[in-house]
Amino acid sequence: MTRTTQFDQAAELLGPAYTIVDLPGRTPEGVGECFASRLPVGDVSALDRPLGAGEPEGSRAAAVAVEVFCPPPVGTLLAVHHKAAYELHLEHVRERQALATTSFVEELLAQRPDVPVVLMGDLNAGPDAASMRFLTGRQSLAGTSVRYEDAWEAVHGDAPGHTFTPRNPLVRAGEMPLERGRRIDHVMTRSTAHGPPLDVADCRLVFDRPVDGIWASDHFGVLADLRRAGHPPGEWA
């Protein structure tokens, strides 16, 4: 979205009821990603660092983590918006970015490990990509492993759920005219040893059809309804 002093696209679309937090890495024209919450927010932490020598120019690890105060029984959670390289041939960069973001999250949780975490964003990677396999606990990277539950998969299993698809004419008209369709936008919840503290009640695509001939974006959105588990993971009911 474009966010400048002259034009704030996010604020215009969402209105004053939302708190908007920018991710690092906006272009000089003010184009970039942002996180928005209609619930009260607390601390905001940002990850923004170059990946280092040997990577394409400008490659960075970037994310924001926002403390969100949800009503009971969910309570306080940490909402993490992760940014990933879009280039098709740069999965190794997305691996390093995923490693950086999950390490960033673990550092934030050091003093409060029981706070639920929701990680989301246009991760530019399908479920079988190495970065996604790492995030969902199917493989380790650099001797590190984590496990986040994929909300779409929890409800729909292996159903495609493409969020970037030629069914949307903006995709065909864009910079990837030969796109075949992928599920690259995700909502995930962090697991501890016995599973995530948040259950997925429902997950569905949104903005996946035009209104009066107008498409909201070249991506479809993912809407996940989350709730507390029946009892805390690691304990008997």
Commentary on this structure:
The chain has 237 residues and is an alpha+beta fold. The protein has a domain at 39-157 and 186-204: Endonuclease/exonuclease/phosphatase (Deoxyribonuclease I, Chain A, 4-Layer Sandwich), CATH 3.60.10. Helices cover 17% and strands 29% of the residues. It contains 5 helices and 10 strands; from the N terminus they run αβββββαβαβααβββ. It has helices spanning 9-14, 91-108, 130-135, 151-156, 169-173; strands at 19-22, 34-37, 41-50, 60-69, 76-83, 117-122, 148-150, 185-190, 198-206, 221-228. The strands form 3 sheets. Strands 3-4-5-6-8-7 form a 6-stranded mixed beta sheet. It has a two-stranded antiparallel ribbon with strand order 1-2. Strands 9-10 form a two-stranded antiparallel sheet. Strand 4 (60-69) and strand 5 (76-83) form a beta hairpin. The longest helix is centred in the middle third of the chain and has 18 residues, at 91-108.
Q: What is the topological layout?
A:
Elements: H1 9-14, E1 19-22, E2 34-37, E3 41-50, E4 60-69, E5 76-83, H2 91-108, E6 117-122, H3 130-135, E7 148-150, H4 151-156, H5 169-173, E8 185-190, E9 198-206, E10 221-228
Parallel strand pairs: 5-6
Antiparallel strand pairs: 1-2, 3-4, 4-5, 6-8, 7-8, 9-10
CATH C-level class of the domain at 39-157 and 186-204: Alpha Beta
CATH topology of the domain at 39-157 and 186-204: Deoxyribonuclease I, Chain A
What is the mean pLDDT?
96
* Major β-sheet strand ordering: 3-4-5-6-8-7
Give the beta-strand count. 10
Shape: globular
